[in-house]
Specification:
4 helices; alpha/beta; 2,3-Dihydroxybiphenyl 1,2-Dioxygenase, domain 1; 8 strands; 25% helix; 150 residues
């Protein structure tokens, strides 16, 4: 039987305490857990969630698999990647993430590109931006706003 493969891009997050991260993502982003694969020592080798309609994979840190180096955002001094969620009712969803334990990096604002937009850091070091389109903005308006901000 052939397997139906659907091409996708899915973030794969490395964290300390993947079980706690799953609990956080359920509370903060209404994640639905697909499943998890535990290692004999209790760490999670793999887990998959549905967040905002997309698959997000995660696992505990396994430095022994990465030349002895931890690859969590906290070990690396932060993350260069921000995961973006386009949502409805951004004010409520942003506050829900904060109430679940996220830290505000950039408070919600009405951004010049037409979104209500903000950024939080989850307790595991990953950055999550949230935006809700609120108005149509032309490229000319965006370019003019960029000039004004310099």
């Amino acid at each position: 039987m052939a397997i139906d493969v659907q091409p996708a891009v899915s973030p794969h997050l490395i964290v300390n305490d993947a079980a706690a991260a799953i609990d956080f993502y359920v509370k903060a982003f209404d994640a639905q857990e697909y499943g998890r694969v535990p290692h004999p020592d209790g760490r999670l080798v793999h887990a998959a969630l549905n967040i905002n309609g997309a698959t997000v994979m995660l696992n505990d840190d396994f430095p022994e698999m990465t030349e002895g180096k931890s690859t969590t955002p906290t070990a690396l001094g932060g993350s260069p990647v921000t995961i973006h969620l386009t949502v409805t009712d951004v004010d409520t969803k942003f506050q829900k993430a904060v109430d679940a334990g996220a830290t505000v990096v950039h408070p919600l604002e009405d951004a010049f590109w037409g979104d209500r937009y903000g950024v939080v850091r989850d307790p595991f070091g990953h950055l999550w931006s949230m935006g809700q389109p609120t108005r149509e903005v032309s490229m000319e308006e965006i370019e003019e706003a960029m000039k004004q901000s310099q």
